[in-house]
Every structure is written in C-alpha cells, then in structure tokens.
Amino acid sequence: MKATVRWLQPMSFVAESESGHALIIDSSPAAGGRNLGPRPMELVLMGMGGCTAVDVVSILKKARQQVTDCVVELSAERADSVPKVFTRIHARYVVSGRQLSEKSVARAVSLSADKYCSVTRMLAGTAEITHDYRIEAAD
Questions:
Q1: What is the rounded average pLDDT for all residues in the chain?
Q2: Domain encompassing residue 94
Q3: Are residues 78 and 125 in the same domain?
Q4: pLDDT tens digits for 6-57?
Q5: Quick check: helix, strand or coil at residue 101?
Q6: What is the CATH number of the domain that holds 8?
Q7: Could you give the number of structural domains in the chain?
Q8: What global pTM score does this model have?
Q9: Hey, which residues does 55 pair with through a beta bridge?
Q10: How many CB atoms lie within 10 A of CB 1?
Q11: How far from 57 is each of 32, 51, 129, 135, CA to CA, in Å?
Q12: What confidence tens digit (pLDDT) does each residue in 24-33 have?
C-alpha cells in the first residue's frame, strides 16, 4: 500500500492513495491552515470508523442478517502533551435492519473490535477502546 501527501500551501496538503483517490488535509486557522479539510488525527479516527463499519456489515451479511444501515459514532480523547496520541476512543454502533438478532450484532461488533479491524488494533496500543451498540428496526 502506498500514498503520497503533497503540500499545497499555506498548511494545506493533498493526499493521494495508490488506488487513485485524493482528499485535502488542512490545519486549523490557529495553526496557519484554512480549514479546507480534515486534520490528520480526524482522518485516523475516521479510518477506524470505516474499518470497523466494513467489518460489522460484512459479518452481519455473512450471518444472513437483513442489515440496512450501520453508523459508527466515534468520540476520542487525546493526550495533553506531545505526541498528542489518542488515549481513549469510544465507538457507538447504530445498526439498522429487519429482524436483526441482537446476538449477531453483538458478535459482529465484538469480532471487529477485538480481532478484525486493523486500525482499532493499532490504536489499542495507546488508547483505551470501548464500544457499545444500538439496534434500530428498519422501516
């Protein structure tokens, strides 16, 4: 896997993935940026959310669950001093579907958090990671 990050100025960058996707990364105005895109640590948190959401949906589909939506709401705390790594992350999964089995949803969330999500496993080296879930019936 490869990526390139190129400076645009004043504190904005364009990040390009090997698969051909690009996005703008920026700093806050207080740090000289123009607030044109997410901050690097926001991308890390979003990466965790994307990684674990993919796992949960995939596991539920393999279990033949009628999942119609999956939202992962993430909240994180960072260290006060440099490096300001994540020290706590909480993921709340809101899973929607028809006749979802609570046991299947709990299993999918647990498997992702404890085994499959690469980003979660990496961040667990510095952060206490917790999770919960809520099941909503689809219309």
A1: 96
A2: 40-137
A3: yes
A4: 999 899 999 999 999 999 999 999 999 999 999 999 999 999 999 999 999 9
A5: coil
A6: 2.20.25
A7: 2
A8: 0.93
A9: none
A10: 5
A11: 39, 10, 20, 13
A12: 999 999 999 9
